[in-house]
Design a protein that fits this description.
The chain is mainly alpha-helical and 549 residues long. The protein has 21 helices and two strands. It has helices at residues 2-20, 25-31, 38-63, 66-83, 89-117, 123-150, 162-165, 167-181, 195-218, 223-246, 260-290, 295-301, 303-323, 328-347, 354-382, 388-429, 433-439, 442-445, 451-458, 481-513, 526-548; strands at 153-154, 157-158. A hairpin with a 2-residue loop joins strand 1 and strand 2. Helix 3 packs antiparallel against helix 16. InterPro entries: EmrB-like, MFS, MFS_dom, MFS_trans_sf. Its main location: membrane. Pfam families: MFS_1.
Length: 549
C-alpha cells in the first residue's frame, strides 16, 4: 500500500493531464488563433510519449523502475512549466512534445510496477485504488480545465496557462513520495540499450502520423504525402530488422509477437486507442462549439462518460477477481463502443436535447471501462514475468499509437470538411423567412456580435464563412440564434463523419476480440514468478552438475 501510494500520485499526474486539456483546448486554440492547428498540440504530445514508452519499459527491466519513474516525473514537470510560456499553437506543440517524453514513462511504469508486486488474479482487489485515481482525474480534469480556461486571468496569468501550471505542485509531491517509498527489489542486468530501435521506430512512426494529420490538406497522393509514406514504411522495415538483430535486447523483442495473445492484443490496443480518442476529442468540441457550453459546464456534462468508465472498470475488476475470467468484458465493451459511436453519428444533431446526448456518453464510458484495463491485464498475464516491463510498455505503446493516429486522422477529417458544411448550412438557412427577417432588421444587423456574419454575407469571397471558425470559434456564441444555427449545424454535420469513422474502427476491434484466447490468470506476482524461475534454473543447473559428477 505504501508503494501503491507513490504510484497513484504519478498515475494521477498522467491521467489528469489527459483530461484537463480536453475542455480547455478550444479556449487555448482561440486565444492563440489556431483552432484548426489544435491537432498539432495533441499529436506532438502523443508522438513523443508513444515513442518513449517502449524505451522506458526496456530500460526499467534492465536497471530498475525507480530511477526512470523519477526521471519521467521530472521531465513532465519541466515540460508543463514550458507550456505556460507558449505564444502560438506551434510553440505549444513543441513544449507538449517535450512534456510527452515524460508522460511516456508515467503510466506504463506505474502499471509495470503493479504487475511486479501484485498477482493478476488478485490485481482486481487493488483496482479500486487505481481506478479511484482515474475516476478522480476524469471528474476533476474536465472541471478544473474548464474552470481555469474560463477565467480571463488568475494572479495576472491567463487562466488557460494554469491548466499546465497545476501539474507542477502535483509533480513535486510525486517526486518526493516516489523517491521515499518506491523501494522494490531488483536484480541489475547489464544489457545493451537499443538506441537504433528507438531511432528507427521514430523514423517509421512520425512520417505516417504526419501524413495522417496533414493528408486532407496536402492531398493523400501529393508529393509530400508520398514521401511520408515511403520514409515511414522504410523506417518500419528498418525497425523490424534492427529488433530481430537485437534479439532480447530489443525495445520490443520480436519473440513476443510469437505469443498469439500478445500480438492480437497489440492490434486490438491500436484500434481501441483510435476509437477512444475519437470520442474523447469530439464530445467536448460538440458541447462547447455546438451546444454553447462554457469550458466549466462542458466538464460537468462529461460526467456521465467518466462515471460510466469508472463504474464499469470497477465491476469488471471485481468479477475478474472472483471468477478469473476476463475475455467477456472487452467483447461487451467494444460492442458498446460501436453502438455509442453509431448513435453519435445518427442521433446527435446540433439541436438534439442534452439529456439524450449524455445517455450516449454514459454508454460510451461503460464500453471504455470494460475494455481498457482488461487489455493491459491480458498482456501482462500472457508473457513471462521477466518481460513484465516491456510487455506493459508495449501495450501502452500500441494504445497510444492508435490514439495518436486517431487524433491526427479524426481532426483532419473534421477540419477539412467543416468549412464546406457550414457554407452549405448557410445557403440553406439564408433562404428561410426567419433568416431574411433578421438580416433586414436594423436592430439585429447592427449588433456588434452579429458583424462577422454581416461582413461574410456582404463580402462572400473574402475568406469568411466556414473558414473563419478554423482560427477562432468564440464569435459563434455572440451571434443571434438565427445566425449561429448554420455554424452549429455545420460543425455537428462534420462530427458525424468522424463518429462514423470511429464506429468502423471499434467494430473491427469487436470482431478481433472474439478470436483472442483467454489465458488463465496467474496467482503469483511478477517478482514471485521471476524468483521461482530463477530457483528452477538454479535447481536445473545443480541437477546437471550432479549428473556430470
Amino acid at each position: 500500500m505504501t508503494i501503491l501510494s507513490g504510484l497513484m500520485i504519478g498515475m494521477f499526474l498522467a491521467a489528469l493531464d489527459q483530461t484537463i486539456v480536453s475542455t480547455a483546448i478550444r479556449t487555448i486554440a482561440d486565444d492563440l488563433h489556431g483552432l484548426s492547428q489544435q491537432a498539432w498540440t495533441t499529436t506532438a504530445y502523443l508522438i513523443t510519449s508513444t515513442i518513449a514508452t517502449p524505451l522506458y519499459g526496456k530500460l526499467s527491466d534492465m536497471h530498475g523502475r525507480k530511477p526512470y519513474f523519477l526521471a519521467a516525473i521530472s521531465i513532465f514537470v519541466v515540460g508543463s512549466v514550458a507550456c505556460t510560456f507558449a505564444t502560438s499553437m506551434i510553440e505549444l506543440a513543441a513544449f507538449r512534445a517535450f512534456q510527452g517524453l515524460g508522460a511516456g514513462g508515467l503510466m506504463s511504469l506505474a502499471l509495470a510496477i503493479i504487475g511486479d508486486i501484485v498477482p493478476p488474479r488478485e490485481r482486481a482487489r487493488y483496482q479500486g485504488y487505481i481506478l479511484a485515481v482515474f475516476a478522480t482525474s476524469s471528474v476533476l480534469g474536465p472541471l478544473v480545465g474548464g474552470f481555469l480556461a474560463g477565467q480571463s486571468t488568475i494572479l495576472g496569468i491567463a487562466g488557460w496557462r494554469w491548466v499546465f501550471l497545476v501539474n507542477v505542485p502535483i509533480g513535486l509531491v510525486a517526486l518526493v513520495v516516489v523517491a521515499k517509498v518506491l523501494n522494490i527489489p531488483h536484480t541489475r542486468r547489464e544489457h545493451r540499450i537499443d538506441w537504433w530501435g528507438a531511432v528507427t521506430i521514430a523514423v517509421g512512426v512520425v512520417p505516417l502520423l504526419l501524413v495522417a494529420e496533414q493528408g486532407q490538406t496536402w492531398g493523400w497522393l501529393s508529393g509530400r504525402a508520398l514521401l511520408c509514406y515511403v520514409v515511414g514504411v522504410l523506417g518500419v522495415i528498418a525497425w523490424i530488422l534492427v529488433e530481430r538483430r537485437m534479439g532480447d535486447e530489443a525495445l520490443i523483442p520480436m519473440r513476443l509477437f510469437k505469443n498469439k495473445v500478445f500480438s492480437q492484443t497489440s492490434v486490438l490496443s491500436v484500434l481501441v486507442g483510435m476509437g477512444m480518442f475519437g470520442g474523447l476529442l469530439m464530445v467536448p468540441q460538440y458541447l462547447q462549439i455546438v451546444k454553447g457550453a462554457s469550458p466549466t459546464k462542458s466538464g460537468l456534462l462529461m460526467l456521465p462518460l467518466m462515471l460510466g468508465m469508472m463504474s464499469a472498470s470497477i465491476l469488471a475488476g471485481q468479477l475478474t477477481s472472483r471468477t478469473g475470467r476476463y475475455k467477456i468484458f472487452p467483447v461487451i465493451g467494444t460492442a458498446l463502443l460501436t453502438v455509442a459511436m453509431l448513435l453519435f453519428h445518427f442521433e446527435v444533431q446540433w439541436n438534439t436535447p442534452l439529456l439524450e446526448t449524455m445517455v450516449i456518453m454514459l454508454l460510451f464510458g461503460i464500453g471504455l471501462g470494460l475494455t481498457m484495463q482488461t487489455l493491459t491485464l491480458s498482456v501482462q498475464n500472457a508473457v513471462p514475468a521477466k518481460d513484465m516491463g516491456v510487455a506493459t510498455a508495449s501495450a501502452t505503446f500500441f494504445r497510444q499509437l492508435g490514439a495518436t493516429a486517431g487524433t491526427a486522422i479524426f481532426l483532419s477529417v473534421l477540419f477539412s470538411s467543416v468549412g464546406d458544411k457550414i457554407n452549405a448550412a448557410f445557403r440553406t438557412a439564408s433562404q428561410t423567412p426567419q433568416f431574411q427577417a433578421a438580416l433586414h432588421d436594423p436592430a439585429v444587423a447592427g449588433k456588434p456580435g452579429n458583424q462577422p456574419v454581416i461582413q461574410m454575407l456582404q463580402h462572400p469571397g473574402a475568406g469568411g464563412g466556414g473558414a473563419s471558425v478554423l482560427s477562432d470559434s468564440s464569435f459563434i456564441q455572440k451571434l443571434d440564434d438565427v445566425f449561429a444555427a448554420p455554424f452549429k449545424q455545420g460543425f455537428a454535420d462534420s462530427m458525424h463523419g468522424v463518429f462514423l469513422l470511429g464506429a468502423g474502427v471499434v467494430a473491427v476491434a469487436f470482431v478481433l476480440v472474439l478470436f483472442i484466447k483467454e489465458v488463465p490468470l496467474r496467482s503469483v506476482s511478477g517478482i514471485q514468478a521471476q524468483a521461482q524461475a530463477a530457483a528452477a534454473a538454479l535447481e536445473k543447473t545443480g541437477a546437471k552438475g550432479a549428473d556430470a559428477s
